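Fold this sequence, please.
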Amino acid sequence: MPDLNSIEILIRDEGLTREQAQAVVDNGQAILCIACAGSGKSQTLAYRIARLMSQGVPARSIVAITFTEKAADSIKRRVASVLIRTGQSPNLIGQMFIGTIHAFCQNVLADSDAVFRQYDVLDANRFMLYLMSRYPHLGIAELKGRYKDKYFDTLEQVRNAWSILRDEGLDIDDVTARDEQLGTTLAAIRDGLVQDQFIDFASMVREVADRVQVAGRVRERIGAVRHLLVDEYQDVSGAQEELIAAVHSLGGSIFVVGDDDQSIYGWRGAYVANILEFEQRYADVHRHVLATNFRSTRAIVDVSNAFAASQLGPQRLPKTPRANADATPRQL
């Protein structure tokens, strides 16, 4: 095992802020890291992962969830750099998971049930194309009149309804009882996806979130995660939060990074209350605030902070963003 002091020395010598360093070395089981814009959250995540490994944590027990593959690649490069400088092998990255929640769920499902290995994954664009290609057979045309007979508006509303259904874990029968035509369309989509061996992003997360609640291979896989790190936590959905909570309930630590000021995906299922209410849902939460913006001038930081405060009001998480005093450029 590498010398733990080597990572501690590197943290000091690399010039991490005191806020970043405290977040990196915190050994808490439930950690909320509020990262203001330009505050170096990716760097913080990378150092935290490297420090876990310097403590002897098996790489395979670490999972880091990012919002995009581009962000995942960036964190992988940063982690590799830190591992090399602390005498560890960068090849260890291949033993852990760093990627999107959808890619993680796809791996878990494929490992737990051979059926899912045959499924073709539909991202948001491909799912829309799927609806278009089966438009006559899914009952979507019957809903068109609700949206002034606009074809694409109807498709988008059906896609959103499906995403909400899967994200919230709703029963199609309950939807049908309130809206028979919409329920019929959603049931047709569900059956069509299974028949055609397709699975969309929302369904992958829902499958894992449901299966982790009962004994089986999925629960074993999620239970093997000892350290879960989540980037852009303000943009996670309800089903994704269920999965995060499951890791914690099975004994794993959770380290979530985000900023309620930057929540922009409510329209597609992101639930900003996840970050606002984190300290109410989990016990003994450790909070860290990365407040130093190394990307923007003081004037820009002050204006954006005032705007966020005026728009979000009293429910906004307490933070005081500030510009880097000496305006020294930094790699974030």
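The beta strands are 30-35, 62-66, 97-100, 120-122, 198-200, 227-230, 253-258, 286-290, 292-293, 322-323. Residues 120-196 form one domain.
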